Amino acid sequence: MMLLPLACLAFISDSGAPEQWLRLPSGASAIPLDLIVEEGVQRVRMIGQGLAQDVAGYQGNPDRLFTDMQDICTRHVASGTLSDGTSVIVTLMDKEVQFGLSDPSVIQFFEAFTVQDGICALDDTEWMH
User: Fold this and answer.
1) Contacts of 128 (CB under 8 A, 6+ apart)
2) Contacts of 22 (CB under 8 A, 6+ apart)
3) Would you state the pLDDT for residue 39?
4) d(CA 26, CA 12)
5) Domain, as residue range, for 120
6) CB half-sphere exposure, 109, CA atoms < 13 A
7) CA distances for 42 relative to 21, 35, 38, 94, angstroms
8) pTM for this one?
9) Displacement of CA 125 from its chain's centroid (Å)
10) For residues 117 and 60, what is the distance between their CA atoms, to the nearest angstrom?
11) Taking a C-beta distance cutoff of 8 angstroms, is the pair 6, 44 a contact?
12) Is the terminal CB of the chain with fewer CB neighbours within 10 Å at N or C?
């Protein structure tokens, strides 16, 4: 397993300038925390601005949350050199938690995707068995 701080990855805004906070389709923002690379799977962990206060309205609209997480995966992970079939796990949390540990006081959302043609699609293979 390799743990990379996402700050070392280039996230570029529409203006061409590097940015730390990523603007998501819902209008919410997230900051990259780290990227954990394992064989066949990449885990991207982000901190969502105002997640605890539900500023993006995820509680009332789970589709909005899914769209934001898919955007994180497609625009900021799969748009690189990932091969088709690579699994990507996106974690969006309200504050940092060490990888592999849980903290009941922290809000965390997880979603699994599979890369196909540079786009992240919902990985529902666990539900297909």
Assistant:
1) none
2) 11, 29, 30, 31, 32, 46, 72, 76
3) 87
4) 18
5) 2-127
6) 22
7) 20, 7, 6, 20
8) 0.81
9) 19
10) 31
11) yes
12) C
Instruction: Report the DSSP beta bridge partners of residue 32.
Output: 46
Q: Is residue 102 classed as helix, strand or coil in its secondary structure?
A: coil
For the chain, how many structural domains are there in total? Answer: 1
Supply the pLDDT for residue 42: 92
Q: What tokens appear for 61 in the block?
A: 């609209």
The encoded tokens of residue 69 equal 């997480």
pLDDT of residue 108: 94
Closest CA to 96 of 28, 42, 48, 61: 48
> Any idea which residue has 């962990």 for tokens?
45
Neighbours of 99 (CB within 10 A): 13
Chunked mean pLDDT (size 10), the chain, 129 residues: 47 49 93 90 93 90 95 86 89 94 93 92 69
Q: What is the pLDDT of residue 126?
A: 56
